Each structure stands twice: as structure tokens, then as C-alpha cells.
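User: Second chain of the day. Same drill as before.
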Amino acid sequence: MKNNRSGRLPFWVFSKIDLKVKLTILFLIVSLFEIQANSNPEEDKLNLDIEQASLLKVFEEIESISDYRFLFESQQITSEKRITLKLKNKEIKEVLDVILDDTDIEYQVKGRQVILVRSKKNQLINNSQTPAGR
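Assistant: Same format as last time:
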């Protein structure tokens, strides 16, 4: 009598698994590979060619050509500054450094989200100038 326990699972174990379970497992494995392939946003390079656009239009353009999304309060991020850019193969941080230069806006990149806020020192100055009765 031969013992069939050689460390491998017999084929009949897999034949009894339902087709739905097999497809679910396959889908999960493929999804994990997709997540791994898109997990490094630092390697994304942006190309921008913009002339005399507002800050909001520049953000819209970046969102349209990349997977980055900008989060900000519209009352806090108002800039009349017109921007002309011609950048090739730049990372998002380099682009934001150029765009937000000479503004009171700071950014923080978290994955594919860019969070924009007014700098705290500028907020303190503006708050101290408002009358106490308001």
C-alpha cells in the first residue's frame, strides 16, 4: 500500500472548489498586482505648458493629465497670480514649488492627494488685523 502524502495537495482538492471562489481568488490576486504597479506616485513625471492661467486652472490641468487630486478650501486658496509654465519631466513636488512660489500657500502630498492650506504665519497676521467685535 502506497502512501500518497508526499507534501503536495491532490488535484481533486482544487476540483471541488466552486468556480465563483476560483474567480474571486484570481480577481484578488490580479488586484494586488495592480495596486503594486501603481503604488509609487513619486515616479510620476509631469509635462506642463501653460500660459497666463490662474492657480485654479493650473490645478485643473494637473488633475486632467495625472492621477493627482487637489484638496483645499476655496475661500483660503484665492490667488490673482497668473502663471506661465513650461515644465518637462518634473515630479509633482517640483511643479508645486514653482507654482506656489511667492504665495502664502503650503502643500502636502499624501499619495495621490495634494492638500493645500494657507501658511499659518499669514493666517495669524490676518486674524490679528480683524476687529475684535466680528
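The longest strand covers residues 46-53.

User: Great, on to the next one.
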